[in-house]
């Protein structure tokens, strides 16, 4: 791979993860992993400056401003990011360089809160505008109403001045975050991965009542602009802000030497676990404002401050037990159960151990002291075993040779690390199979929750997916036993089951639970074969000719329909009146024949489903992801990573209006 190709590959990865972090509030990797990617790109660009382009992530600040909680507002003062450093040597180099450049400077060491940046503007002492960082240079989102719902936001200064703009970090304390997730669970809603994501999503949503309920907090860490009063130093400004009732960063430390700075960093790092909120590092700033002016800024970062980033948080704990569970396909998964610890703002006590090979490679044993971290600051994982703390001889753990649910033998699949239950009628497999079948991505039967599935299986009403449609035969029994609830609840669920019979055939295909056949593949297959009956008669060679269906998927489909039990279930579903065929789209013309579209973002005059139908009626194909084979990406508002990928690959991006014009 050439240097240019390597740079383009890293840019592509960084832009994807930047969009996940800044614009979707849903990162897939940790800050540390992201920072390492940026360091790699910077190092290559330093060696090859001729390859630096204006769209490089190293030349940009933050994400895109989004229209969610309000209109877009121009920045009066850029909300720049900070240069990150990761080692003691880099800290000493920065501090000592500034000591040489300036005459006996004073440094301020502060906590770096892991939250969302926001600026507040006061005119004649009254809060007028609150704006997010957005792109950091040109504009951000107006979140004034939501900001006013935050208890730490002061609406009126005690000593009014003509103008004040301050910048702070919106965050969520760990206790408040736990309360929100408890409420989400009670309401059967998706829980938030960490406090930072929750705070960002809360500040950007539309209802300020929700913002108030979720108890966001705010620390101010800089005066961006001020008129009517002057300060000589950053900390002098802090003292004035405190008198106005404004909450500034806690426990900041003033230092004169690199040793003092490093000692302050160490103290903060040691106390990190005792704070009521998450921090991901410390900020080192020049205190004197004239010296800051002298040093100035680059296009992206101030030269008068840096951020030292802590390595990924990891903690030791004791392994209490290893549980095994059986998945929908019969795969047995071991899970580590350990003494609860707090990582990245949440309490964790479980981590997937994947398979026997993973357990053997770690040599992990019940009773061991283990080191746990969070992958992408979201998923708990076990990093290692602290073998020097092992107490005597502990037994090695082996996944049992019999299924923990049904007692059938387990076998290791050839050429894989997977151990599976050999009983196709295993209760655990059935539960997960039914949950998948009635779920949102498959038959989408409203109100058919996991608890109902388990009870109906336990009482013997459901033994396979076709039995879902036989439940109306037992209406009186179900009401009498109260399995689903009273008459009203039972009838409501039975109506939802009846309604699902008319679903599109690809939903049924998804619900069959064929390995490797998800929602997208199911739609492709059904659009090709038009009916389940046609699919049943397809050969392996025929299946492999279907676009985007590989050999493994084709084999899985073939094996599914070779099973007499599965064919019997299909016939029963047909007898119950479940739709088995794709409704033929009346093609208007074939102007899009041979063209592949990807629809992304929010469309204003039509939904994505409508846009998909329109494209297909004109002979086009709609795919779920962008590739070099994509002809056009139809991008609405907040198009995100798919638009970025299209631009990287040189795929033509069109607006909704341009799509409509193509149809005229």
Automatic annotation (TrEMBL):
Q: Could you cite one Gene Ontology molecular function of this protein? A: DNA ligase (NAD+) activity
The Enzyme Commission number assigned here is 6.5.1.2
Binding of NAD(+), residues: 31-35, 81-82, 110, 133, 169, 285, 309
The active site of this protein is located at: 112
Q: Which GO terms describe its biological process?
A: DNA repair; DNA replication
Q: Which UniProt keywords apply?
A: DNA damage, DNA repair, DNA replication, Ligase, Magnesium, Manganese, Metal-binding, NAD, Zinc
What's its catalytic activity? NAD(+) + (deoxyribonucleotide)n-3'-hydroxyl + 5'-phospho-(deoxyribonucleotide)m = (deoxyribonucleotide)n+m + AMP + beta-nicotinamide D-nucleotide
Q: One GO cellular component from the entry?
A: cytosol
Q: Which PROSITE patterns match?
A: BRCT (PS50172), DNA_LIGASE_N2 (PS01056)
Would you say which domain of life the source belongs to?
Bacteria
**What positions does the domain BRCT occupy?**
587-664
InterPro entries from the UniProt entry: BRCT_dom, BRCT_dom_sf, DisA/LigA_HHH, DNA_ligase, DNA_ligase_CS, DNAligase_adenylation, DNAligase_N, NA-bd_OB-fold
Q: Which CDD domains match?
A: BRCT_DNA_ligase_like (cd17748), LIGANc (cd00114)
Cofactor(s) needed, names only, are: Mg(2+); Mn(2+)
> Gene3D superfamilies in the record, alphabetically?
5' to 3' exonuclease, C-terminal subdomain (1.10.150.20), 6.20.10.30, BRCT domain (3.40.50.10190), DNA ligase/mRNA capping enzyme (3.30.470.30), Helix hairpin bin (1.10.287.610), Nucleic acid-binding proteins (2.40.50.140)
Q: Which residues bind Zn(2+)?
A: 403, 406, 421, 426
- Which top-level enzyme class is recorded in the Swiss-Prot or TrEMBL entry? ligase
- Its job: DNA ligase that catalyzes the formation of phosphodiester linkages between 5'-phosphoryl and 3'-hydroxyl groups in double-stranded DNA using NAD as a coenzyme and as the energy source for the reaction. It is essential for DNA replication and repair of damaged DNA.
Question: To which protein family does this belong?
Answer: Belongs to the NAD-dependent DNA ligase family. LigA subfamily.
Q: What is this protein called?
A: DNA ligase
Q: Which organism is it from?
A: Clostridium tagluense
Give me the gene this protein comes from. ligA
